[in-house]
């Protein structure tokens, strides 16, 4: 295990999700699908969806304020805000700037990070590097998504999957570096398969209302089966590599907290790592796939459920469109 004398750690965590619930039964009325099919193929029962007129920044701010309170850090102490998102309120300003204003973090820099569903792990890795170079810094990381706004509600192969929500953590120097903090991470990408999962419309290639592009390209499009195959390989390889290079085995892990994209992908990984069910945290049934928000939402609820105790060794692993992938090992 490579342990620097300065380690970054999660000092506090918060979450906030819209109160509107969209169940599988609601979806049965919108597209040709069934509660049974969705549960069997994905594990999802319901997801949270923004009301008309609501924006995800509201939840990003709420989650951030809770994380700050738990960390006992004031907004003025925050040096940097990183929002991992692919669905910010606007392209300008960034979501992170709206959070900076909303929480009154008057001394913070702010930027958004675009790494799809792996965004939270990328942000953790970035914060870790900043803190190692500036040990007194406090960094707010937010994973927040409004995927319902980029979902094609006529496409049954994708609309059953996604949900909205926000999770936030405050990062700072670990006060007990021998027991708590980030150990190691892997960040990866494979752009050769980018066509399998896209949202083309609205970027600079096809600006909004560009007549060359069919309407469905203004929403998330995915070749699910191919993404599934690639995802299982990426999460297994990343998890095993992280453990191996830190001289750890799956037996050392107290909790695996994977990106919540599909229960079958999580189950595949659990079996490959030979972990019992109670060592893998799952909350996909309540929120669906919330992309960059999924890991902080799962971490928050794992701690609330008493599954995460100070000093526990946890493995985070994610993958997403691009492809991007990433993993992190840390002592909680
Ligand atoms: O976080 C970003 C990364 N994204 C992911 O990880 C998603 C990865 N992929 C998946 O989770 C799965 O591929 C899906 C859940 C999207 C689809 O599950 P699948 O088991 O791969 O189904 P499939 O695409 O192979 O489709 C099987 C059948 C098809 O019918 P035929 O061709 O066998 O007659 C589909 O048309 O199921 C049909 N189908 C549906 N039936 C009822 C597809 N969507 C639905 C639906 N309800 N919603």
From TrEMBL:
<keyword id="KW-0511">Multifunctional enzyme</keyword>
<feature type="domain" description="Beta-ketoacyl-[acyl-carrier-protein] synthase III N-terminal">
    <location>
        <begin position="111"/>
        <end position="191"/>
    </location>
</feature>
<comment type="subunit">
    <text>Homodimer.</text>
</comment>
<keyword id="KW-0275">Fatty acid biosynthesis</keyword>
<dbReference type="GO" id="GO:0006633">
    <property type="term" value="P:fatty acid biosynthetic process"/>
</dbReference>
<dbReference type="InterPro" id="IPR013747">
    <property type="entry name" value="ACP_syn_III_C"/>
</dbReference>
<comment type="pathway">
    <text>Lipid metabolism; fatty acid biosynthesis.</text>
</comment>
<feature type="region of interest" description="ACP-binding">
    <location>
        <begin position="260"/>
        <end position="264"/>
    </location>
</feature>
<keyword id="KW-0443">Lipid metabolism</keyword>
<dbReference type="Pfam" id="PF08541">
    <property type="entry name" value="ACP_syn_III_C"/>
</dbReference>
<keyword id="KW-0444">Lipid biosynthesis</keyword>
<feature type="active site">
    <location>
        <position position="117"/>
    </location>
</feature>
<dbReference type="Pfam" id="PF08545">
    <property type="entry name" value="ACP_syn_III"/>
</dbReference>
<dbReference type="GO" id="GO:0005737">
    <property type="term" value="C:cytoplasm"/>
</dbReference>
<dbReference type="GO" id="GO:0044550">
    <property type="term" value="P:secondary metabolite biosynthetic process"/>
</dbReference>
<keyword id="KW-0808">Transferase</keyword>
<protein>
    <recommendedName>
        <fullName>Beta-ketoacyl-[acyl-carrier-protein] synthase III</fullName>
        <ecNumber>2.3.1.180</ecNumber>
    </recommendedName>
</protein>
<comment type="function">
    <text>Catalyzes the condensation reaction of fatty acid synthesis by the addition to an acyl acceptor of two carbons from malonyl-ACP. Catalyzes the first condensation reaction which initiates fatty acid synthesis and may therefore play a role in governing the total rate of fatty acid production. Possesses both acetoacetyl-ACP synthase and acetyl transacylase activities. Its substrate specificity determines the biosynthesis of branched-chain and/or straight-chain of fatty acids.</text>
</comment>
<feature type="active site">
    <location>
        <position position="259"/>
    </location>
</feature>
<keyword id="KW-0012">Acyltransferase</keyword>
<dbReference type="GO" id="GO:0033818">
    <property type="term" value="F:beta-ketoacyl-acyl-carrier-protein synthase III activity"/>
</dbReference>
<dbReference type="GO" id="GO:0004315">
    <property type="term" value="F:3-oxoacyl-[acyl-carrier-protein] synthase activity"/>
</dbReference>
<feature type="domain" description="Beta-ketoacyl-[acyl-carrier-protein] synthase III C-terminal">
    <location>
        <begin position="243"/>
        <end position="332"/>
    </location>
</feature>
<dbReference type="InterPro" id="IPR004655">
    <property type="entry name" value="FabH"/>
</dbReference>
<dbReference type="InterPro" id="IPR013751">
    <property type="entry name" value="ACP_syn_III_N"/>
</dbReference>
<keyword id="KW-0276">Fatty acid metabolism</keyword>
<feature type="active site">
    <location>
        <position position="289"/>
    </location>
</feature>
<comment type="similarity">
    <text>Belongs to the thiolase-like superfamily. FabH family.</text>
</comment>
<keyword id="KW-0963">Cytoplasm</keyword>
<dbReference type="InterPro" id="IPR016039">
    <property type="entry name" value="Thiolase-like"/>
</dbReference>
